[in-house]
Amino acid sequence: MLQLQSTIEEQLILRAIKEECGWESLPKRLQASLNSKDEWHRRIIAHCIKRRLLWRTSFVRKVCREGEYYEDMMRYLRKNLALFPYHLAEYVCRSMRITPFRYYCDMLFEVMKNEQSYDRIPNFSAADALRLTGIGRNEFIDIMNKCRSKKIMWKLNKSIARELLPTQSVDITIEPWWGVCLVNFTLEEFKKLSEEESATIDKICREEVNAFMLFDPVVIKGLHRRGLVYLDVCVYAEDRFKVCRLEGFVSNREQSYEDPIEELLYAVFVVSSENSTVAELATTLQVQLSQLQAAASFACRLGWAVKLIDPGSILQEPNSPTKNAISDDDEASRTSVGSLNMSVDAAVFDQDSTDNSGYTHVAFVVDANITSYLMMGSVSPGLKSHAVTLYEAGKLGHASIRDLCNDLSSLEGAKFEGVLQEFANHAFSLRSILECLTSGGITSNNEEIVSMTAGHAVVHESDDSEDTNDADKVSNKKIRKYNVDILRCESLATLAATTLDRLFRRNYEIVVSMLPHPHSSVLPGPKVPVHFGPPSYSSLTPWMKLVLYSAARSGPLSVVLMKGQCLRLLPAPLSGCEKALVWSWDESSVNKFDQRLVKGNILLHCLNSLLKHTAILVQPLSKYDLDNHGNFSTMDVPLPLKNSDGSVPDIGKELGLDMKESSKLKFLLENLGTRIELWTVGYIRLLKLFKESDPNSFAPDEYEWVPLSIEFGIPLSSPDLCYSICERIVSSQLLQANLFTDHQNSMQELRAMLQKVCSEYQATGSTARMFYQRDQPKAEQTKSQNKLLMTYASQRWNPLTDPSSPISGMSDHQRLKLANRQRCGSEVLSFDGNILRSYALSPIYETVMAL
User: Fold this and answer.
1) Which residues does the UniProt record annotate as the domain FAM91 N-terminal (predicted)?
2) Residues 228, 101: Cα–Cα separation, whole Å
């Protein structure tokens, strides 16, 4: 209650500061909690300092003087090792004469003096300090080792570390459009200026436009190194930016994102788009324009963002209306980042500023494991830079995809062992799918597609007859061009749901997910035009298997057990199995893609252990379903299932199966294709089972393939399967033909099937309530019992279903509770290979756990 009250008071205080309420205007409740007017003023100052607000446009101007406010702010920033406040440079650099170089030198000295770890410095502060001082992790450790080598002198005099710090800033990159501003000179400094420096300063004072490109770069850099000028990176609401690779980024372990710009930068990296202005990005992120301008300005300083300059702006006058398009409400944000206009020439035009409206934008969503695999690629130094950018920024733009593919191609022919082989598999798969997506899923009759497997490259030459026809069909139509961005799902998960929805709708037409799906999977909303991935979150659970078996009228024998059950004996479908596959609704209990193949002699113990935490689906396997090594056989069929002409390919022939098995497999896939439209990417996993046609006769060759599961997305762990999916994308012309409507319709039908099953057979569904047999007339119970034999069981049953007789060992309260309840047996769901049925367990199989 005290915590809730404190939260309410804090909200009231923030609201009062926002409304600029004076002490006399505060509610009596707040005055009582703050005790005095001075405490109220301290709260205002602390709030404005934490928000890095400009003195003349914030409430703090009514509380303290400008000099006192900025001095308190700089002390606070140094204490917290925060970023230099570039957006406040007009006072901090001009009046206080604090340069970013000196600020970061003082910060490094404080960390060294306290003998703290380099990891204490936040990521962006460390990166900016490295840019200006040249001191990174290795240099920091080297200086500390030199200090500690002096032993007693270091303990008595900590200033030794300052003597080892640089005295001048390193040569930094200055973009031509950056502004040059003067500081408040002293008379002694003015007398020491050379003639060229004096002439440059006079020109800065006279000119309305002060872009760096208009001055002698040697003179400006000399003045900047001495702290006589500072650089103003102007960002306007109509500007557009492109996020580049995070060269020079520093990844420290200990992070506390106290600075609002730091936290905002991570979101900007993910949401940014070349087609969106700064004002549009602020709307997408639901943040103030001034904050986003400050974040974009900082990213440009470090070279992580490039401003896209409109070629038409060169013809505009410096004071043209387009340059002053920001409203009066945004005046504070303009002055916080810079108020001087600029002029540019054609030499600074960016090639990427051209119109990209002819491209279809694709988002390929991966998890953090990809970045760790790329970091392992010591073969190519460029992979590490791509991995750092993807991990820290959460996005790798389409401009970097070609370089990434080139770096991945350098691994071709290399041999790997152990853990590095897993890295190679992901690298080969990533290159295959990126090249497929960027090419628009097109190949010609004279083109070779290289499938890179473990340690070598296998060249698949395209078939002349089939691919020539496909190429002719595509050539008669307008070829779609694609730009692919790689997004990290963990970064997407940090965004608000509304922000994520606006991101997908504004920036992308197609979203592609990877396999396996991580626990932090973020699925686009229904408003996204095309998503080649899971249609809904329920499709990531065993519900999808039950829908697949029911729709295909085929599948392995399956039993669903409710969470909370405790079995004393295995029921009939499970009692005689050799081994069993166990799947869980809770992925933390049983990993979905590392399915647990449990031996039959320990199956009872395994089920009882898992049922305490989650409902499970069990698929028993006989000894005839296993090979000599005790493993089951599977086959992965890539999606899309159909070719562009609607035919189903002969998968068995491609896999080298005999004619009989190939025909059976093709019949199964054709039957499946007629029942479920699957115009998407992924694969169907088939399971090879012994067909028990006659229990008195045994024919070892009588086996059949049945669907085991269906997965939506791109599997990066298997290069061969990934390449097969890319081939199916080409054969089906999925990215070129007008199949997106078919994809939407098929996914909508699948979502409807999942929703129907889940809503009807979950614990609160209509069928589930009938299982409990509660509040039903006796005349209706007979009808419902007949219906139960043909229906699913609930995902969650009541763990205290009544046995046929009272259980010994229970308390009197539990006996009375059980006696007053209507008795019914526990229902278990079973799939016998043809239809899903439910039946009641005898009390001998189940024990009821006392609560």
Assistant:
1) 17-307
2) 13
Phi, psi of 558 (to 5 degrees): -135, 145
pLDDT at 694: 52
Q: What is the DSSP string of 2-36?
A: HHHHHHHHHHHHHHHHHTT--GGGS-HHHHHHH-S
**DSSP letter (8 states) at residue 626:** B
The C-alpha atoms of residue 120 and residue 114 are separated, in whole angstroms, by 11
So what's the pLDDT on residue 409?
A: 84
Instruction: State how far the alpha carbon of 589 is from the alpha carbons of 592, 607, 830, 849, in Å.
Output: 9, 11, 22, 21
User: pLDDT of 516-563, one tens digit each?
Assistant: 887 767 888 776 778 898 888 888 888 899 889 888 888 898 888 888
What are 588-608's pLDDT values in tens digits?
555 444 457 888 888 888 888
The residues that bridge with 682 in the sheet, in sequence order, are 639, 712
| Residue labelled with tokens 């129907």 | 756
Backbone CA torsion sign across 130, 132, 134, 135: negative
Q: Where are the domains of the chain?
A: 1-69, 359-528, 539-761, 766-840
Name the pTM for this structure: 0.77
The answer, yes or no, to whether residue 97 has pLDDT greater than 50, is yes
Coil vs helix vs strand at 362: strand
Closest alpha carbon to 709 in 488, 542, 508, 523: 542
DSSP assignments along 379-411, one per residue: T-HHHHHHHHIIIIISEE-GGGHHHHHHHHHTT
Torsion of CA 418, 419, 422, 424, to 10 degrees: -80
Confidence of residue 255 (pLDDT cuts 50, 70, 90): low
Angle 354-499-430 from CA coordinates, rounded to 5°: 60
| Cβ within 8 Å of residue 368, ≥6 positions away | 391, 488, 490, 518
**Cβ-based neighbours of 803, under 8 Å, separated by 6 or more:** 823, 843, 846, 848
pLDDT surpasses 90 at 833: no
Residue 530 pairs in a beta bridge with 510
Give the model's pLDDT for residue 795: 32
- Is the CB of residue 590 less than 8 Å from the CB of residue 596? yes
Contacts of 707 (CB under 8 A, 6+ apart): 548, 549, 552, 554, 555, 668, 672, 684, 685, 686, 687
Q: Would you mind telling me the total number of residues written for the chain in this entry?
A: 851
Beta bridge partners of residue 712, listed in sequence order: 682
Q: What is the mean pLDDT of the chain?
A: 77
